Amino acid sequence: MPSEAAAPRQTSTRRFITYLYYRHTLPVRVMHWINVIALTILLMSGLNIFSAHPALYWGKSSYTGRPPLLEITAREDADGNPIGLTRIFGHEFVTTGLLGASAGPDGDLVPRAFPTWLTIPDSRWLSMARRWHLFFAWIFVINGLCYIAYSIAARHLARDLAPSRADWRSIGQSVIDHLRFKHPTGEAAKRYNVLQKLAYLAVIFILLPLVILMGFAMSPWLDSLGSGWVDVFGGRQSARTIHFIVAWLLVAFVLIHVFEVIVSGFWNHLRSMITGRYRVVVEAADETAR
Amino acid sequence: MKLHARTSRRRFLARSLGAASALALAGCDALSRTEWFPNVLGAGEKLSEAVHHLIAPRKAMAQEFSEGDLSPKFRSNGTAMPNSVQYQALASAGFADYRLEVAGLVEQPVRLSLAELRALPERTQITRHDCVEGWSAIGKWKGAKLGALLERTRPKPEARYVMFYCADPMEDDGTGLYYESIDMEDAFHPQTILAYDLNDVPLPIPNGAPLRLRVERQLGYKHAKYIMRIELVRSFEGIAGGKGGYWEDQGYEWYAGI
User: Fold this and answer.
1) What is the CATH code for A23-54+119-289?
2) How many CB atoms within 10 Å of residue A50?
3) What's the predicted TM-score (pTM) here?
4) Domain interval for residue B19
5) How far apart are CA A125 and CA A48, in angstroms?
6) Which among B69, B130, B135 is the nearest to A220, CB-wise?
7) Are residues B130 and B200 in the same domain?
8) For residue range A225-267, what is the model confidence (pLDDT) as tens digits?
9) Is A144 left (phi over 0), alpha (psi -120 to 50) or beta?
10) Pick from A117, A219, A236: which is nearest to B128 by CB?
């Protein structure tokens, strides 16, 4: 929207200047959207794979004498209709419609762990879900490695993501601001705030590597890379459980991320992740001082 | 006026985004049902196989466990009792008439009874069985080393794969006998055994009596149960669906290390 660039605007007695700031470089934008596609497909094909054995355990195997931590199953009511059940730590919940039993292809309730609209492919099809998952796992890993390399080389990591000393000092204020949905304006809006930086760093350097590593731990071939390395994480079934939990933590991150994008200027953020340009509004006095 | 144009453009964009995601999902399902797209996706698993073979030595050993890790009952999956008159006759006689045939691209084909198999060099290992569905069970296996058995038959240099033909029909009408295959390097891996004991007792029928393959470091469907005949071959061409195994013919990967 070049027409908006540097268009002075009169608001009461104060003068504001709006201009477009080049916020996200092309590589970051491209890698961001590749990540959106890859993680969406990984989640949805992963839920299809999970549906082949919808139970999670802690330990080296599934059959240790201890019950599963989580189990999604179904039983039939008196009329033969399926009732979806979710058991967590021994507590049973009826989750018909979402977990355990949901609408099948012809609209009738059928036993299935996750509903069709959350899985790729829509039907229970383990071999195909594995193809989607293991193909997009490579896209995701290669994209992630490119991102790390770029972020170091182009100083994106040091300049935009690493919290400064001032950031660390403002952490308490940032928490309060977030709770009030108050967001930086003017020149400050050009930079990530400290909670945002920490959230991105935790996702990039903790959650994403962990979900990949737990994927490796589920591969019997990669388990032979070092004897018993999987036991560091509690064993293969624990690794599968961690993989599942981290996947949902990533979903939680995405929900918060999208929420913050919406409340702090959805279209401005969306444009900046597509064209790179982010609209900044500053008081005229600031502008001249800049 | 300009503001109005912007709002309607944004509403249009938001609706397009919603419609595009619904279309994209339907597209994923349509692509899954084409001939060509699953093959494109299959490139991912081919790449995994190549990388796995690059980083983990072919002779790397699968983790072995202690007695305390044993699953109380080793789960049986798939066939629990082969729907075959011949197999059930063998089973009711305690497999006294069972003979394992090893043939194909070998100089010296053999036929071995269970007693002869038990006389071969053996190995006992407590390993984890990982099913493609996601569950794992730990069992103690004792069996004849496949490498030692194959050495006796003197494989021809052109032999590339070891086929395992089983007694269990996968279709209700008694057809679709289970079969599997591994390559020569896995066949000669020290942990690759033809197991005849599970948890110190003769292999139960639900777990593949009288003989099942253990090819550690690969998923459960490679571990063929009810093995009747072993054949060394050059390729899978002309064998059932041509993909090297029953589940491979149904779309699962031949390399099951992931």
Assistant:
1) 1.20.950.20
2) 22
3) 0.92
4) 2-33
5) 7
6) B130
7) yes
8) 988 999 999 999 999 999 999 999 999 999 999 999 999 999 9
9) alpha
10) A236
